[in-house]
Amino acid sequence: MKIGELSARTGVSVRSLRYYEQQGLLSPTRLENGYRDYSPFAEEQVHTIQLYLNLGLSTEEIAGFLQCVMKNKEAFCQEIMPIYRHKLEELDKQISLLQGIRSNLEERMQSILEEQQSFEKEK
């Protein structure tokens, strides 16, 4: 299957498919005319890549375990748990940072409201 067909079947842009190839996530064969030729298996592979991207993983992280996951179930791929744990740690840090920002914003809003109320009383 050509890149355009793979794009249509998966809903992933041709540009993204080329990027996945550049990152080593897809390996199409090349026809004599230079066109990429994807196996029917590539469709499943692209959906799997999309699943992991939607979990917030980078293409570099995905490349570390994709071949294993495509051959086995996730449970049998030892490479995946450390990556998941690291991602959860990152998310926890981001959540903590966002909660701090939210708290600071709420405090600032409260301060402004109190200042406005004080100004209204002085009128």
From TrEMBL:
The lineage of its organism: Bacteria, Bacillati, Bacillota, Bacilli, Bacillales. Residues 1-68 form the HTH merR-type domain. Residues 88-122 form a coiled coil. GO terms for molecular function: DNA binding; DNA-binding transcription factor activity. It comes from the Bacteria. Keywords: Coiled coil, DNA-binding, Transcription, Transcription regulation. InterPro entries: DNA-bd_dom_put_sf (IPR009061), MerR-type_HTH_dom (IPR000551), MerR_fam (IPR047057). This is Transcriptional regulator. PROSITE patterns: HTH_MERR_1, HTH_MERR_2.
